[in-house]
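Weekly modeling sync, notes
Attendees: S.R. (lead), two postdocs, one rotation student

Agenda item 3: backlog of single-chain predictions. S.R. asked that every request posted to the team notebook include the full sequence so nobody has to chase files. The rotation student volunteered to paste the first one in as an example of the format we agreed on. Action items at the bottom.

Example entry:
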Amino acid sequence: MSSLLDKALKDLRPGTSQFKVLVYLAFKGPASPNQISEETGISPGTVRPALRALLVKKYLSQRRDGSYQSKIAFTDFVSDIYLNYIRKS
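Predicted structure, as returned to the notebook:
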């Protein structure tokens, strides 16, 4: 598992808007704030601060076109779920 994912899982609680936005971007790929809001149901007024916070924490990068991209691959999230929840049961 990546050290960035380890840090994110310790830093972000599941269910928070920051966690949801990060997982969404890891799964879907680059997206604009409006796309994130529309597809997740999280209000634009919540998405934008979450994106700023995730940028500061270095979990995301912003592209030239204004979209955001996760620095953590979705496969890393899936591997963590498998190793820590499915494999142990």
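Discussion: group reviewed the output briefly. The chain is about 60% helix and 5% strand.
Action items: rotation student to repeat for the remaining queue; S.R. to check formatting next week.
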